[in-house]
């Protein structure tokens, strides 16, 4: 065979890339080559966040204080039809609404079968206000003190006397 007519795979000067086949491929060796290796003696977790990320501690604090941790906003209900001007804005609002719903506690989401529409239907009915306050979706309204009744801190102060008008107008 003459060297004038060598095919590329026959020519020793041409570098042919390695081709894996089921006969020349070691899966364990390839796994070891591409694996991430961690030192088992080195602790990768940041222990200073242990208490604030423990779900049992979060639920315990909520039971004591009645307040959800910072950064959790309750969803809002209202007429926002004037805000939607195009499809992207509407799609963004739907996505934000779904994210807000998913930030609610699991018990509240379970009450509405994990369906944001069921929560919206619930909120539109005024008869559900007390339950919404109990679930933590709405804030409790401040207590209204009827006019004329004494305030809890004592009797109301007497009104200031009005000065009498002077004898005449000066020019």
Topology:
Elements: H1 27-34, H2 50-53, H3 55-65, H4 87-102, H5 106-111, H6 116-124, H7 129-135
Account of the 3D structure:
- The protein has 171 residues and is mainly alpha-helical.
- The relative contact order is 0.05.
- The protein has a domain of 89 residues.
- The protein is 36% helix and 0% strand.
Biggest sheet details = none
Outline: elongated
> From the helix content, strand content and strand pairing, which structural class follows?
mainly alpha
Helix content: 25-40%
| Average residue pLDDT | 78
Rg from alpha-carbon coordinates = 36 Å
Task: Give me the strand/helix succession.
Answer: HHHHHHH
Brief descriptors of the model:
single chain; 171 residues; mainly alpha; 7 helices; elongated
Describe the structure concisely for a colleague.
Helices cover 36% and strands 0% of the residues. With 171 residues, it is an all-alpha fold.
């Amino acid at each position: 065979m003459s060297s004038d007519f060598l095919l590329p795979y026959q020519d020793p000067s041409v570098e042919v890339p390695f081709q894996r086949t089921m006969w020349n491929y070691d899966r364990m060796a390839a796994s070891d080559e591409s694996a991430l290796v961690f030192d088992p003696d080195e602790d990768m977790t940041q222990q200073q966040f242990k208490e604030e990320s423990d779900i049992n501690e979060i639920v315990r604090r909520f039971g004591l204080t009645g307040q959800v941790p910072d950064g959790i906003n309750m969803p809002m209900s209202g007429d926002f039809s004037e805000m939607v001007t195009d499809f992207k804005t509407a799609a963004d609002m739907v996505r934000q609404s779904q994210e807000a719903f998913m930030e609610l506690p699991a018990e509240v989401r379970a009450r509405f079968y994990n369906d944001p529409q069921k929560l919206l239907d619930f909120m539109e009915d005024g008869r559900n206000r007390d339950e919404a306050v109990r679930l933590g979706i709405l804030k409790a309204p401040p207590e209204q003190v009827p006019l004329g009744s004494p305030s809890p801190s004592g009797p109301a102060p007497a009104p200031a006397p009005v000065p009498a008008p002077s004898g005449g107008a000066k020019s």
